[in-house]
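Lab notebook page, bench 4
Experiment: in silico fold of construct C2
Operator: M.H.
Input chain length: 287 residues
Purpose: comparison with the prior construct
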Amino acid sequence: MRDQDFLGADWDYCLVLDACRYDVFSEIYDEYLDGDLEKRRSVGSSTPEWASRNFTGRHDIAYFSGNPFINDLGIPLNELKWGASCDYEWTAADHISQVFDVWKTGWDEELGTVPPEGITQAFRENREAAERAERAVLHYMQPHAPYLSRGKGQKLKQIQKGIRKQEEAENGAVEADGGTLASVGDRLRTNVESVLDGSELAQKAGLWLELDPADVVRNGTQQAALGLYEENLRIVLEHVAEFVDELDGDVVVTADHGEAFGEEGVWEHHIETYIPALVEVPWLELE
């Protein structure tokens, strides 16, 4: 299996499907898209890790981001409130020439995420900027939870709310999270998160927020989550299939990382967790 080689490969447009694992993608992609598919190894098991390891220089890319961790705010990942509890001193603004924060402009409050059409619409509205750049990336949030048929999105809502609040604080609009008391709370939250990341039960509990309790009781957590995950993937693939004919150039569909459903005791995705479910991603060169 080859490394993903995200920036070293030849493409004009890259469509990133957040948290898309290879095995599920390989079973259904050809119902929507034609092309040559390979399994490749991602450099990270989470978006912050993937981004910070791929974008190390200065890159002339128009990046349409549905993921709040790739943003134009200029705040390092290790300073983001409700961030990924990582030590990466990385900002997209330092490495990517133009980032469009679609996670703000295209956010759907009811769904708790950016639906596929939000990314595509942002691209259409800024097509000239995309064409001026050497390359363009459209970072779709699906199949990443929340599952669109459920419309919950608790985790992403927390991340987005925290980043917006911090952006306001950086701009002097509000006091940064209430001063000393909040800074203590931030440290406590980080410590708690580090403990929870090592607990399979806690990981499953986080996933349960996105699932139908009746479905979990009936089919178990893994099958309930996998069914909604595949549905999310089909939703974004159907949208992408209708959109790609608008792109004039070489198009690749890939992912930043995968998603775990109990493999080796891991659920969802976490930084520096190198199991196949999280690092094996699709690389589809469209015809």
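Observations: Residues 2-286 form a domain with the Alkaline Phosphatase, subunit A fold (CATH 3.40.720). The first strand starts at residue 2 and ends at 3.
Next step: discuss at group meeting.
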